[in-house]
Amino acid sequence: MSLSAEEYEKLSPEKQKEYDVAQQLREKDEQSKLPYRWTQALDHVEVVVPVPEGTRGKQVQLTLQRTFLRLEVLGNTLVEGQLSKPIRPDECTWTIDDGQVLNLHLEKANPNEWWAHVLTHDPPIDTTKIKPEDSKLSDLDGETRYVDSEEV
């Protein structure tokens, strides 16, 4: 059962916590049933797909378009569908680790939004509960790092 923001706000703090825990368990269960695992940062999505042991690059056929993804290994489609948000296909990369796992790095077209899911037909996560890692000053560009002493 999913609550609207208004319904959620009407719950007591204890009931909100119970609801959050139940939603997290539901999400975890739904995500565990996907044929891949995924994580994200503001600028990219990482998708990890198990592949048959011994898989080599030449056995992989990957179709990446701005809003579409298809991954085939040895003629079997492992992942296919409309992406939930656009990507920059020319900036995406993939590798195979130990012949068992394909790692796919998807560069978001809009690096300032969280994805609720990788493919539109997959169950979404609650992006309002994402807690991004703290950024380091060195991660910021020079203009963002610069503070005019007269402004302080």
Automatic annotation (TrEMBL):
Arranged from A to Z, the UniProt key words for this protein are: Cytoplasm
Record CDD domains: p23_NUDC_like (cd06467)
Q: Where is this region: Disordered?
A: 126-152
Which GO biological process categories is it annotated with?
Answer: protein folding
GO cellular component assignments: cytoplasm
Instruction: Tell me the compartments it is located in.
Output: Cytoplasm
**First-listed, main subcellular location of the protein, grouped into a coarse class:** cytoplasm
**Residues in domain CS?**
31-119
One of its Pfam families is CS
- One GO MF term attached to the UniProt entry: unfolded protein binding
| Function summary | Required for nuclear movement. May interact between microtubules and nuclei and/or may be involved in the generation of force used to move nuclei during interphase.
Q: What is this protein called?
A: Nuclear movement protein nudC
Q: Which species does this protein come from?
A: Malassezia psittaci
For this protein's source organism, the top of the classification is: Eukaryota, Fungi, Dikarya, Basidiomycota, Ustilaginomycotina
